[in-house]
Specification:
This protein has about 90 residues and is mostly beta strands. About 10% of the residues lie in helices and about 45% in strands. It has a single domain (about 5-85), classed as OB fold (Dihydrolipoamide Acetyltransferase, E2P) (Beta Barrel), CATH 2.40.50. It contains one helix and seven strands.
Length: about 90
């Protein structure tokens, strides 16, 4: 069985966007990325906190679904913000 992700993450210039199948769309600046956690098969992109205290706003990006560019290019975008938890 092949699973399909419910959302897509796109990076263009200095922006990162999230689009879901139910038409939710969110755009953030790359400068708002606090850290990127490497979990082996996917990355967890963690943003600086905004809004209510304690509310997390992390996005998941599966490595084998990267369609433009390479993993090396992706990691270079977030150089200095990586935490490896494999």
């Amino acid at each position: 069985m092949k699973l399909r992700w419910y959302w897509t993450v796109k990076i263009d210039d200095e922006k990162i966007s999230l689009d879901t199948l139910d038409n939710y769309h969110k755009v953030k600046r790359l400068s708002k990325v606090r850290k990127v956690i490497d979990r082996g098969d996917f990355y967890c992109i963690c943003f600086t906190f905004t809004g209510a205290v304690g509310i997390r706003n992390d996005w998941v990006c599966q490595k084998n679904l990267i369609t433009k560019g390479t993993i090396e290019e992706f990691e270079k975008l977030f150089e200095g913000k990586f935490i490896r938890k494999i």
